[in-house]
Design brief:
By secondary structure, this protein is α/β, with parallel strands linked by helices. It has two domains: 217 residues, 2-enoyl-CoA Hydratase, Chain A, domain 1 (Alpha-Beta Complex), CATH 3.90.226; 45 residues. Helices cover 52% and strands 13% of the residues. The model has no long low-confidence stretch (mean pLDDT 94). Bound molecules: ligand LP2KCY5N. The site of ligand LP2KCY5N has 22 residues, from α4, β5 and α6.
């Protein structure tokens, strides 16, 4: 009994490590020093990243550092990695809403930490750490939505692009302020922005550090919808309702949908087709498929 439990724990830990390796971009072969940057980030505490998993398979990931407009401290970066690891193994999960407390989304990196880490080694390690985490966040088999209230600036704007969709509240803004800081995005935000809005619009948004309001974001295809509520509770409720349109059904099927779309977006044609075949194999003849065959629904 104890041996079985131990074996299953080991297996879970092994699966977690393999999954993380597969989804991460950088390791020591790229000069990435994960333990070093983790120790460094620990030196800049404050705030938290909270995760609540609701019974309907929707996770709410909340940035909580209201004193600094939800800026990312070092420990918040570490906590984000932990929460993503937790979400990767959430079997019942279907969707994810990423939001901030106190009527704002996120004002980017904590500038106090950025200043203290302005040397090249720390900067590159932090960049690789955040790219690894945010790429894993983007690849979660969950349909994800960034609920943008107030401001999403710098790294906060980059975070919105890791989600499949963005919903904005009236008066909110997304702004890649990096140029004003003498920088370009480093958390993968430029690459993802090009995929979302195209090369020309991305170039304009980054080179002009343009403030994108909800109307502009809709026009560019950066946002799906402008919500009616601007308060925290009302907008979260609206975001839940919007997401529920796409998360109806069993988790295994919703996760399979996200996996085939991610493969289609990220992989060359033949590799994407092979992934689609594998994912298809995981749902074919599965419980949801067999139940549907018994029910024989009409799709009118
Ligand atoms: C690596 C770089 C890049 C990345 O990671 O990709 C970045 O993200 S760099 C950070 C980019 N963000 C910024 O530069 C934001 C700078 N802040 C502002 O522009 C303004 O504070 C605001 C966010 C527009 C809010 O303005 P306002 O409503 O007038 O409030 P305050 O300015 O009084 O802010 C309250 C409080 O919060 C502190 N704050 C805000 N953002 C940050 C931040 N990113 N890092 C650290 N602290 C931040 C601000 O300094 C105020 O604190 P006190 O001065 O102690 O009151």
């Amino acid at each position: 009994m104890a041996a079985d439990l131990w074996k299953s724990l080991l297996q879970t830990a092994k699966e977690k490590i393999i999954q993380q390796r597969r989804a991460s971009l950088y390791d020591c072969a790229h000069g990435y020093q994960e333990e070093l940057i983790k120790k460094k980030l620990q030196q800049f505490p404050g705030g938290s990243i909270n995760l609540s998993k609701e019974g309907n398979g929707i996770g709410i990931l909340t940035l909580n550092n209201p004193r600094l407009m939800n800026a990312f401290t070092g420990t918040m970066m570490l906590e984000l990695q932990e929460r993503v690891t937790e979400l990767e193994t959430w079997k019942e999960g279907k969707g994810l809403i990423v939001c901030g407390v106190g009527n704002t989304f996120c004002s980017g990196s904590d500038l106090n930490a950025v200043k203290a880490m302005s040397n090249s080694e720390d900067g590159m390690n932090m960049c690789m750490f955040m790219q690894n985490t945010l790429t894993r966040l983007m690849r979660l088999p969950l349909i994800s939505v960034a609920l943008v209230q107030g401001k999403a600036l710098g790294g906060g704007a980059e975070l919105t692009t890791t989600c499949d969709f963005r919903l904005m509240t009236p008066g909110s803004e997304i702004r890649f302020v990096h140029k004003q800081m003498g920088l370009v995005p480093g958390w993968g935000g430029a690459t993802r922005l090009v995929q979302i809005v195209g090369h020309g619009a991305a170039l304009q948004l980054l080179s002009g550090a343009v403030k994108v309001d909800p109307e502009g974001a809709l026009r560019l295809g950066l946002s799906e919808k402008t919500l009616v509520s601007s308060d925290e509770t009302g907008s979260l409720e609206e975001a839940r309702a919007w997401l529920s349109l796409y998360t109806e059904g069993p988790a295994s099927v919703i996760q399979a949908v996200k996996k085939v779309v991610t493969a289609g977006k990220e992989l060359p044609l033949e590799a994407a087709l092979r992934t689609e075949k594998d994912v298809f194999g995981s749902v074919w003849g599965g419980p949801a498929n067999l139940q549907a065959l018994v029910r024989r629904p009409k799709h009118k």
